[in-house]
Automatic annotation (TrEMBL):
Residue ranges: DNA binding: 40-59
PANTHER family: ACREF/ENVCD OPERON REPRESSOR-RELATED, ACREF_ENVCD OPERON REPRESSOR-RELATED
Gene3D superfamilies noted in UniProt: Tetracycline Repressor, domain 2
Annotated ranges, domain HTH tetR-type: 17-77
Listed name of the protein: Transcriptional regulator, TetR family
Alphabetic keyword roster: DNA-binding
GO terms for MF: DNA binding
């Protein structure tokens, strides 16, 4: 099985020396920590170490920054999901690769995941962002449908299974977020992560297994 990691997005989509990229990176952090509604262009400019005028040279406004940030992030997520599902013929192999890549991404890019968690359904998303989100959902739903058709996953509502799969991973990201931002909170242990992996799988499948 090939190793996968969503973390390659920094290399393929983000160039740290590029001002536009610095603006997007700063915006992701500001939107994650402050919240989109409470954020403003001057605070993003300060975090990116550029002038407000520089931001408007590259991007129209705060809404444009949000959409570019989301589209850039989801472009990598969708690319990686496509690769995972194409490279692994078995449902078990796809699930294993998906969980390993996702948990690593969550651990290493907690701020980015928190940004996604808070803005996937932001009312300021444009049509392109909505289509990107729908593509992500379709990739995951198609995986679940394939699992059901092969009698690996139980015949259940797709929304239920999507909630189990993605909701659990987002909750994992929240624990990492708390560890980084709230004194006294601890990050999930590897043992806990493995237990989560097993429990999600066992919740989806007709027979139990342990990874």
């Amino acid at each position: 099985m090939n190793e996968h990691s969503f973390n390659k997005w920094e290399d393929e989509f983000m160039k740290p020396d590029d001002k536009r990229t610095r603006i997007i990176n700063a915006a992701i952090k500001i939107f994650s920590c402050t919240g989109y509604a409470a954020s403003n262009v001057p605070s993003i400019a300060k975090a990116a170490n550029v002038s407000v005028g520089t931001i408007y040279h590259y991007l129209k406004n705060k809404q444009d920054i949000l959409n570019v940030a989301l589209q850039t992030t989801l472009a990598n997520v969708n690319s990686e999901l496509t690769t995972i599902f194409q490279d692994n013929e078995s449902i078990e192999g796809s699930y294993n690769a998906l969980f390993e890549a996702s948990s690593l991404f969550i651990k290493n890019e907690t701020i980015t995941v928190h940004f996604l968690y808070g803005n996937l359904f932001n009312p300021d998303l444009d049509e392109t962002s909505i289509q990107s989100r729908q593509e992500t959902t379709k990739l995951l739903v198609d995986f679940l449908k394939k699992g059901q058709s092969k009698k690996v996953f139980i015949d259940s509502g797709l929304h239920t299974q999507l909630s189990l799969l993605i909701g659990s991973l987002f909750m994992l990201s929240n624990f990492y977020w708390l560890n980084e931002n709230v004194p006294g909170e601890s990050a999930p242990t590897m043992n806990e992560i493995n237990h989560l992996k097993n429990q999600i799988w066992n919740g989806l499948t007709v027979s139990q297994a342990y990874f």
